[in-house]
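[audit] Reproducing an earlier prediction to check determinism. Same input, same settings, fresh worker. If the tokens differ from the archived copy the diff job will pick it up downstream; this log only records the rerun itself.
[audit] input (185 residues):
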Amino acid sequence: MVELEVNSVLVVIDVQKAWLDPSLGKRNNPDAERIISGLISKFRERQKKIIHVRHDSLHPESIFREGKSTFEFMDEVSPAPGELVITKHVNSAFIGTNLEDTLRKLGDPLVFYVGLVTDHCVSTTVRMSGNLGFRSYVIGDACATFDRRDSTGRLIPAIEVHKVNLASLDGEFAHVVNSRDLIFR
């Protein structure tokens, strides 16, 4: 169990409409967006800071390119007025953004990470967060990913990709918890 502190922060990573593209394949955890939405509501109710991160690809044809409808946040996780939105161009939300400075100004916050996808931008951001010394938590049931193929072409199911990535983060870069492990006072 983890109790939120005064300066707890929720960082919502890349929950954009692009991830709804069926060409991306099979995904685990279809409830991730619903859980993220619930967490956003609880953080807002308790007046905790929420930071929304979105990916803006530098590739003109990308579904993550600003100006395309798929670049937009999914409706259920849209930022409220006054909530910080950070736009990034690489996997880590710390590279080329003001995320580190924003978190440092909060003192020593508990930083909770959620979003899409577990093995790319969530993992990369969380690894840097841990390396930068932030008290980092990944809310595992508020993340999801897609099936992947290894270098031999073997299919790795999304649930396995998800579990392995969370296991790699846990204890080394962050603590992995589930949404039911959070105590909101």
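[audit] rerun output stored. Observation attached for the diff report: The first strand starts at residue 2 and ends at 3.
[audit] end
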